[in-house]
Amino acid sequence: MRKLRRLIADEGLTIAILATVATASVMAFGFGAESEIVASMLIIGVVTAVAETRLRSGK
């Protein structure tokens, strides 16, 4: 649980997930994208953010 808390508290992860949510929101509301596309964008964004954070931390 502590590892998850440290991961969430990391500023880089927070910014990356915020950017993912913003992009998915623009696609959903601005372009009327399908829910499957928006959900896949969110999943890919979160996975990428977690992977980037782990790589930068050296773990």
Q: Can you lay out the helices and strands and say which pair or pack?
A:
Layout (H helix, E strand, L loop, with lengths): L1 H8 L1 H20 L4 H23 L2
Helix pairs in contact: 2-3
Structural features, described:
This protein is an all-alpha fold and 59 residues long. The chain has one domain (2-57). It has helices at 2-9, 11-30, 35-57. The model has no long low-confidence stretch (mean pLDDT 79).
Key features of this structure:
86% helix, mainly alpha, 59 residues, 3 helices
- SSE string, helix = H, strand = E? HHH
Task: Kindly report how far apart the N and C termini lie.
Answer: 17 Å
Please count the beta strands (DSSP E, at least 2 residues each): 0
Number of helices: 3
The tally of structural domains comes to: 1
User: Poorly predicted ranges (pLDDT <50, ≥5 residues)?
Assistant: none
Could you say which overall geometry the principal axes of the C-alpha atoms support? elongated
Based on secondary structure, the structural category is mainly alpha
Radius of gyration from the alpha-carbon trace, in angstroms: 13 Å
**Main sheet properties:** none
Mean of residue pLDDT values: 79
**Which percent bin holds the helix content?**
over 70%
- How much of the sequence lies in strands comes to under 5%
